Amino acid sequence: MDAGEASVVLEEISYFEAVLRMLCAMLVGIVVGVERGRNHRPAGMRTHMLVALGACVTMVVSNFLFVEFRPLGATPDPARLGAQVVSGVGFLGAGTIMREGLSVKGLTTAASIWAVACLGLAAGAGYYAIALTGAAAVYATLTVFEVVQRKMNVTRHATLALDLECKDLSGVMHDLNRFSVQQNATLSHVQFDETEERGVYHLTAIAVFRGANPQADQAVFLEKLGGNLNVKKLETTQY
Fold first, then answer.
1. Which family would the database say this protein is a member of (predicted)?
2. Within a 10 A sphere around the Cβ of 180, how many other Cβ atoms?
3. What angle is formed at CA 144 by the lines to CA 142 and CA 145, rounded to 5 degrees?
4. What is the pLDDT averaged over residues 174-181?
5. How far apart are alpha carbons 206 and 236 in whole angstroms?
6. 119-148: per-residue pLDDT in tens?
7. Residue 71: CB partners within 8 Å, gap ≥ 6?
8. How open is the CA angle 144-101-111, to the nearest 5 degrees?
9. pLDDT level of residue 99 (50, 70, 90 thresholds)
10. What is the pLDDT of residue 153?
């Protein structure tokens, strides 16, 4: 389709159809937002509706601007404003991402916001089938495939944060590595420094157990570590 044909198509867009496209975008936001809100995520139904509606309005306005300025000899790009929506919505998605301890939450919600913005652009461009089918696909991804992912995730693991004070740092480190190998664990984020008490060190580390029975491995690991005479104080946090 050349520029002249595109202009003819865009001229056929009425305000009634523009409203219809906005309603379609709001429906897309409802479909995705209800699932997020039901799971008490940072961005719920209203947020997703607003993102989809805003993206749709941006695309509709782009269409009207193209039709309005094309006869004046200008060459407006109806996709330029839409491109800014796709990149700009990333700031909103970043606001839903939170770090709690070792885990990062909100990535799926951020992705759903980005997807809703894209579907809103599709609705604003008049691609109703794509917008509605995409909304159904996103909803299925957030619900059906969540169950599938849980069943496929056969590799279980347990994560433990260690915070201890000890003497003979090299000996304790040797035992930590030995116990980790014996109990199917990997150590990471190992940090240590000397305390105010001479010869006593403060050590922190993360142990991830990935064996067939991570909880049992973790219990044995702590029993062995707690039995080390050089360990003066041991605190743990389960993740």
1. Belongs to the MgtC/SapB family.
2. 19
3. 70
4. 92
5. 10
6. 999 999 999 999 999 999 999 998 888 777
7. none
8. 35
9. low
10. 56
Convert the pLDDT of each residue in 33-57 to its tens digit: 888 878 777 678 898 999 999 999 9
**183 contacts: CB under 8 Å, gap ≥ 6:** 209, 211, 217, 218, 220, 221, 224
Q: How far is CA 190 from CA 49, 83, 95, 112, in A?
A: 45, 44, 30, 35
DSSP letters spanning 138-189: HHHHHHHHHHHHHHH-----EEEEEEEEESSHHHHHHHHHHHHHHTTEEEEE
Give the residue carrying structure tokens 């190992």: 190
- Give the start-to-end residue ranges of the domains of the chain: 3-152, 158-238
Provide, rounded to the nearest whole percent, the portion of the chain with pLDDT above 70.
86
Largest CA distance in the chain: 86
Q: Which residue type is seen at 180? A: S
Domain with residues 158-238, CATH architecture: 2-Layer Sandwich (3.30)
Kindly report the pTM of this predicted structure.
0.59
The two three-digit tokens of residue 113, written as one number: 């916001």
3-state DSSP assignment of residue 89 = helix
What does the radius of gyration of the chain's CA atoms come to, in whole angstroms? 28
Residue with the two structure tokens 């782009």: 62
Task: Give the confidence band of 155 by pLDDT, cuts at 50, 70, 90.
Answer: low
Contact 166, 239 (CB under 8 A): no
Task: Return the ∠ at Cα 153 (arms to 36 and 211), rounded to 5°.
Answer: 135
